[in-house]
Design a protein that fits this description.
The protein is built from 5 helices and 2 strands. It has 223 residues and is mainly α. A hairpin with a 4-residue loop joins strand 1 and strand 2. Helix 1 packs antiparallel against helix 2, helix 1 runs antiparallel to helix 3 and helix 1 packs antiparallel against helix 5. It starts with a helix and ends in a 23-residue tail after the last helix.
Length: 223
């Protein structure tokens, strides 16, 4: 009996140690999640500032290409280069979330509402922001590849002589990028930052995880 009891005690103590290790791993993952969210917020702030700078560039180009006065060729060329090459977008970090969902660490987060909120952020909001950034980049690249090439002689820094109506088309496409994509993307960045701040300040992310429910795990509950 003593031997049997000793075996059960050893198994129980091993279970306690295993639960403690799992709680520690889960807490480390949640802490790293907050670190990544802070890094994402920094990037969102930087990209929004860049997009607001590009908004001013678009407005200058639309004014210069409106036909109301002579074109400041050097300024136009510099502005077009920024539109073509400096359209920075955000690719959110998801490494820790992927690790959480591929391990059993997420099961140690006892608050189902918090898990659902994290899932919505990483699986939906992050996906929308990344997809919107790719579409934005694609549209900028198409305008540069097709419309800008037809309308503007970058070597001579002037409108294409063979296509006198090209600047009208270019202005229309730049207006499209400014109104349909730049404004849209800045709005998405604002929405994304608000949710990032809310998650960073979410106290449940910083609480020590408890063991999963009895229906999913048979290990004793931690405190």
């Amino acid at each position: 009996m003593i031997i049997v009891a000793s075996v059960f005690v050893a198994i129980y103590l091993e279970g306690i140690a295993d639960n403690a290790a799992r709680r520690s791993d889960a807490q480390a993952s949640l802490t790293q999640l907050v670190v990544e969210l802070k890094e994402d917020r920094e990037e969102v702030v930087e990209v929004r500032a860049q997009q607001m700078h590009l908004r001013a560039i678009y407005d200058n180009l639309l004014r210069w290409l409106s036909g109301t006065g002579p074109l400041p060729a050097d300024s136009v060329q510099a502005a077009l280069d920024e539109v073509a090459f400096l359209n920075r977008t955000v690719y959110p970090r998801a490494g820790t979330w992927s690790a959480l969902t591929s391990s059993d660490h997420l099961s140690w987060v006892s608050d189902e509402d918090l898990v659902a909120r994290l899932a919505n952020f990483y699986e939906s909001m992050n996906a929308r922001l990344e997809s919107g950034g790719r579409d934005y980049d694609y549209n900028v690249n198409e305008v540069v590849r097709v419309t800008l090439a037809r309308a503007w002689d970058s070597q001579r820094q002037r409108p294409q002589v063979a296509n006198p109506g090209g600047t009208v088309e270019l202005r229309a496409q730049l207006r499209y990028l400014r109104l349909s994509w730049n404004e849209y993307y800045v709005d998405r960045l604002d929405e994304h930052e608000r949710e990032i701040i809310a998650l960073i300040e979410e106290p449940r992310l910083l609480h020590q995880p408890r063991s999963p429910t009895a229906g999913r795990h048979t290990a004793p509950r931690g405190r």
